[in-house]
Amino acid sequence: MNPNVQALNRARASLSDIQRPGRAEVEAAVRTIIRWTGEDPDRDGLRETPARVTRAFEEFFSGYGQDPVEILRKTFEEIEGYDEMIVLRGIRFESHCEHHMAPIVGQAWVAYIPNGRVVGISKLARVVDVYARRLQIQEKMTAQIANTINDVLEPQGVGVIIKASHHCMTTRGVHKPDSDLVTSRMLGCFRDNALTRQEFLGMAT
């Protein structure tokens, strides 16, 4: 097995070892936050909010319970020698920053050049979602997506570009609502070949 895939599996195992609190504990924590704001968690409009927030968090952070390596395992080799760039553009995602738990909303462009096998295109979008539905910083998320595709598919190269708006700076702090952050990760021929990299960058603008 690819040693990098083994490392991904070890990381998955370490996540599964974390002791997760029960639903009642999470709901109690939300009630505490509501009281901290100065509100009454027992008034009609807020009585069910702790349960709603807990269900929302289960969706927001469902990526911890999914395995990106398994998502990419099923591939197709009957590709008639296809060895040109494959690009899935504008993959919308919602994530949350690990510093403020504020939303990160953006799009990802994912590309690779196959080396004898391809993966279903929906799997690329699912890998983006798995990493987005965790507490994140954009730089790490960009690298995780590219590294996982590279390690599992072993293509000629991988490119990932992410453009996102971070609510931790658009709705609080410095309040810059029109700004977005762009990050990229280029591996293999996307890093080594300027023409390949430029072709991909042209598709993502």
From TrEMBL:
It is an enzyme of class 3 (hydrolase). One of its GO terms (biological process) is tetrahydrobiopterin biosynthetic process. InterPro entries: GTP-CH-I_C/QueF, GTP-CH-I_N, GTP_CycHdrlase_I, GTP_CycHdrlase_I_CS, GTP_CycHdrlase_I_dom. Pathway: Cofactor biosynthesis; 7,8-dihydroneopterin triphosphate biosynthesis; 7,8-dihydroneopterin triphosphate from GTP: step 1/1. Its EC number is 3.5.4.16. SUPFAM superfamilies: Tetrahydrobiopterin biosynthesis enzymes-like. GO terms for molecular function: GTP binding; GTP cyclohydrolase I activity; zinc ion binding. It comes from the Bacteria. It holds the Pfam family GTP_cyclohydroI. Residues 27-203 form the GTP cyclohydrolase I domain. Zn(2+) binds at residues 97, 100, 168. It catalyses: GTP + H2O = 7,8-dihydroneopterin 3'-triphosphate + formate + H(+). One of its GO terms (cellular component) is cytoplasm. Keywords: GTP-binding, Hydrolase, Metal-binding, Nucleotide-binding, One-carbon metabolism, Zinc. Belongs to the GTP cyclohydrolase I family. Toroid-shaped homodecamer, composed of two pentamers of five dimers. Homopolymer. This is GTP cyclohydrolase 1. It comes from Bradyrhizobium lablabi. The lineage of its organism: Bacteria, Pseudomonadati, Pseudomonadota, Alphaproteobacteria, Hyphomicrobiales. The gene is folE.
